[in-house]
Design a protein that fits this description.
heterotrimer, A mainly alpha, B mainly alpha, C alpha/beta, A: mainly alpha, B: Arc Repressor Mutant, subunit A, 2 domains, two-stranded antiparallel ribbon
C-alpha cells in the first residue's frame, strides 16, 4: 500500500480549509466583539463555545472529501482501499487538529465572553472538568461527525437518481411517520427502548459516549469502503 | 519539408529520401554530423523506430556511418555516390514513365526528341 | 511489463460498451487506439486504470490484477477527457502531487518544461483555464510520466493547430526520454498516423484490428478506373468498400493487389482512409 501521498495531500487540503475556517472564527469571536461593544444589539447568547460551529465544519469536511479524494486519488493511480483509508486517516488527523485548536481557543474565548464556558459542552453534559477528557471527547466527536459525513456523501455518490429520491424520502418518513405510528401502536415501548439505547450510548457517561463515537466512526468508514469499492469514478 | 501519410512511398523511405536529398544538396556536408534520430523524429513527427529504419537504409547504401557515442556522420564521397546512384535510377524513374505516357498518346520517338529539344532551348533562354 | 485484458466485457443499462475484449500490451511503442464515437475506447481505458469496474473479464499486469493494487496502478497513468483534479489546483501544485504519487516515475522538470513550451503558467488553476488549456494542463502532466504505461484519451481535444503540432512533438520527446507503452486514443488519425507504430481499431466494443504500421499500410489497396475493369478485378478479391462517381469506381480491396490493366490505377490506402472505409455505417453512404 502506498498511502503517504494521498494522505499528506488530503491533510494539506484539510489544513488549508481549516485555516480559512479558523480565521472566520477568530474574526467573529475575538475581533468583531470589540466593534460589537459599539453596537448595542450585537451580543452572544451561545454558551457551548464554538464547538457547534466546528461540529458543522467537520461534518461538511467529511461530506466534501468523498468526491474530491476519489477523483484525485484515482487520477494519480491509487487503489480504492488506499483512497478510502487515506480519507479516513486524514479526517482523524483533522479532528485531532481542530479539537486541539478548540481546546486552546475556548478558554481564550471565555476571557472575552464570560457566557462561553471555558470547558464547553462536556461540563454541561457530564459534569466532567478534566481538560484531557474534554480534549479526547471532542476529538472523538469530530471524528464521528466527519466520518458520518463521509459515509452519507459516499451513499449519495453511489446512489442513482431514483434511489437517492427514495432514500431522502424514506429517512424523514421513517422518523416522522413510521416511528410515531409505532409509538402509538406499542404504547411507546420501542421509543422508550430507543431512548434508553441512546441514553446508554451517549449520555450515561463520557466513557460510553467515547466508545460509541469510536465504534460508529469505524462502522461509517467500513460501510463507506463497501459502498465505494466498486463505485465508478468517471465523471466530473 | 513535410512527410505525408497518403503517398505511395512508405514513411521510412521518405525519410531516407529526405536525408539523401539533404546530403546531395550539401545541406548536410560530408564528414559532418547529421541530426539525431530524436531531432528528426520530433521535426517530422515520425515514430523514432521509423526514422531509424530510414537511416539504416543510408548506412546500407554507404552514405552515412556511425561514430560511437557521438552520432551519425556523412561519409566522404557520399555526394558523388548519390549522383552515381541517381544516374543509375534515372532511366527507371523518369524515362520509363515518360515512355509509358507517350505510348498512350501515340507519340513517336521523333516527337519526343523534338519536345525535349524545345523544352531545353526554352529553359536555356529563360 | 505485460498488460493483459482477458474477456473484458462492460455492460451498461442498455448497451454493451465492451464485448469480450482480449488485448496484450507489452513492447514499448506508440500505439494508436482508434474508434468511432461510442466504440468503447474510453470505457476500455477507464477499466484498465480502475476508474470503472468490468462486468466480466480481467485486467492484469504481469499476471496480477490491477483494480485495487497501488503498485500496479502506479505503473500506469491515464490522461482523461474528464477533469479529475480539483478545479482550484494550480499547475505547479499538480506537479508536486504527481511527483509525490509517482516518485521516480514522474519527471517534474520535464513537466515544467512542457508547460513552458505551451505557455501554461505554473500558478494557473485548472478551473480557470479554457477548454484547450485544460487539456494542455493534463497533457503536460501525462507527458512527464515515466510510468510503464501512459494512456491519452483524446489529448488534443480543443487544441489549435499549433498546439496540436507541439503536443505531437513533445510526445515524441517524452517517449524518447523514456521508452514506454504510449496509447493515444484519437479521432485525428491523419495527424497522428506517422507517429504510430501500432494501430488498434475498435468498433462496437470489439477489437476490429490490431496491426503494426507495416501491416496497416499493406492491409488494403485502392483500385480505381472504369467500373467494368474495377469489378473484373474486384470479383477475385475481398472488397472492403466501393465508392463510385458516374462510371468511375474506386474499390478498397483487402491485401496488396497488382494489375497490368492500363486503365486501372492502383494505390496504397492511408490509415485514415482505411479506418473510414472499415467503420462506415450503411446510413453514411450518401
Amino acid at each position: 500500500m502506498m498511502i503517504a501521498a494521498p494522505l499528506s495531500r488530503n491533510i494539506k487540503t484539510g489544513l488549508k480549509t481549516a485555516g480559512v475556517y479558523y480565521s472566520i472564527i477568530i474574526a467573529v469571536f475575538f475581533i468583531l466583539p470589540f466593534f460589537g461593544r459599539l453596537l448595542p444589539f450585537f451580543s452572544f447568547n451561545s454558551n457551548g463555545g464554538f464547538e457547534a460551529c466546528t461540529m458543522v465544519f467537520m461534518f461538511i469536511m467529511g461530506l466534501v472529501s468523498v468526491k474530491s479524494n476519489l477523483k484525485t486519488g484515482i487520477a494519480l493511480s491509487r487503489g480504492r482501499t488506499t483512497i478510502v483509508l487515506a480519507s479516513a486517516l486524514s479526517l482523524v488527523a483533522m479532528s485531532l487538529v481542530t479539537s486541539v485548536a478548540d481546546a486552546l481557543l475556548n478558554p481564550l474565548a471565555h476571557l472575552i465572553h464570560n457566557q462561553i464556558d471555558a470547558m464547553g459542552l462536556v461540563f454541561e453534559l457530564y459534569g466532567v472538568e478534566s481538560f484531557w477528557v474534554y480534549l479526547a471527547w471532542r476529538f472523538l466527536l469530530y471524528t464521528f461527525l466527519s466520518c458520518g459525513g463521509f459515509f452519507l456523501a459516499s451513499l449519495n455518490y453511489r446512489m442513482n437518481k431514483p434511489l437517492r429520491w427514495a432514500f431522502w424520502i424514506a429517512v424523514p418518513s421513517l422518523l416522522f411517520i413510521v416511528l410515531p405510528i409505532v409509538a402509538v401502536a406499542d404504547q411507546g415501548e420501542f421509543a422508550y427502548w430507543l431512548g434508553m439505547a441512546f441514553y446508554n450510548c451517549f449520555a450515561k457517561s463520557v466513557g460510553n459516549c467515547c466508545i460509541s463515537f469510536t465504534v460508529l466512526s469505524i462502522a461509517a468508514i467500513a460501510l463507506s469502503y463497501l459502498i465505494l469499492r466498486k463505485a465508478p469514478i468517471d465523471r466530473e | 519539408m513535410e512527410i505525408s501519410n497518403d503517398i505511395q512511398m512508405p514513411i521510412f523511405m521518405q525519410v531516407s529520401e529526405k536525408l539523401t536529398d539533404a546530403i546531395f544538396t550539401g545541406a548536410f556536408a560530408e564528414e559532418t554530423q547529421i541530426p539525431s534520430t530524436t531531432e528528426i523524429s520530433m521535426t517530422y513527427k515520425i515514430n523514432p523506430a521509423t526514422v531509424l529504419k530510414g537511416m539504416n537504409l543510408l548506412v546500407d547504401q554507404g552514405l552515412i556511418y556511425k561514430r560511437r557515442g557521438v552520432g551519425m556522420f556523412v561519409k566522404q564521397g557520399a555526394r558523388e555516390r548519390i549522383k552515381t546512384m541517381r544516374n543509375e535510377d534515372f532511366s527507371e524513374k523518369f524515362i520509363k514513365p515518360l515512355l509509358d505516357e507517350a505510348k498512350k498518346l501515340d507519340l513517336s520517338a521523333e516527337d519526343l526528341h523534338k519536345l525535349i529539344d524545345k523544352e531545353m532551348s526554352d529553359e536555356a533562354r529563360a | 511489463m505485460k498488460l493483459e485484458l482477458k474477456g473484458l466485457t462492460k455492460r451498461f443499462k442498455d448497451v454493451t460498451a465492451l464485448d469480450n475484449v482480449d488485448l496484450c500490451l507489452e513492447k514499448p511503442g506508440i500505439y494508436g487506439l482508434l474508434g468511432r464515437n461510442g466504440a468503447g475506447k474510453t470505457t476500455m481505458l477507464n477499466i484498465i486504470t480502475a476508474r470503472i469496474s468490468a462486468s466480466e473479464g480481467t485486467v492484469t499486469l504481469d499476471g496480477e490484477p490491477v483494480f485495487d493494487s497501488d503498485s500496479k496502478l502506479g505503473c500506469m497513468h491515464l490522461m482523461s477527457e474528464v477533469n479529475y483534479l480539483d478545479t482550484d489546483l494550480r499547475f505547479k501544485e499538480a506537479v508536486a502531487y504527481a511527483k509525490q504519487s509517482y516518485g521516480d516515475k514522474f519527471d517534474s522538470d520535464s513537466a515544467m518544461r512542457y508547460a513552458h513550451a505551451f505557455k501554461l503558467e505554473g500558478s494557473k488553476k485548472l478551473g480557470k483555464l479554457s477548454t484547450g488549456y485544460k487539456s494542455i494542463y493534463k497533457c503536460c502532466l501525462a507527458l512527464a510520466m515515466d510510468t510503464e504505461f501512459v494512456f491519452f484519451d483524446e489529448p488534443v481535444l480543443g487544441l489549435d493547430a499549433n498546439h496540436r503540432d507541439l503536443f505531437y512533438r513533445l510526445l515524441l520527446d517524452s517517449y524518447q526520454r523514456k521508452e514506454k507503452v504510449v496509447v493515444i486514443s484519437t479521432h485525428l488519425i491523419e495527424e497522428a498516423a506517422s507517429m504510430l507504430e501500432h494501430f488498434i481499431i475498435i468498433a462496437s466494443g470489439r477489437i476490429l484490428m490490431n496491426l503494426d504500421s507495416e501491416q496497416m499500410s499493406s492491409y488494403a489497396t485502392a483500385v480505381s478506373g472504369p467500373r467494368d475493369a474495377v469489378e473484373a478485378l474486384a470479383t477475385r478479391h475481398s472488397v472492403i468498400s466501393r465508392v463510385s462517381l458516374g462510371g468511375l469506381e474506386t474499390a478498397y480491396i483487402k491485401g496488396i493487389v497488382e494489375t497490368d490493366d492500363p486503365k486501372l490505377s492502383v494505390c496504397a490506402v492511408d490509415p485514415q482512409r482505411l479506418f473510414i472505409e472499415l467503420t462506415r455505417n450503411e446510413e453514411e453512404r450518401v
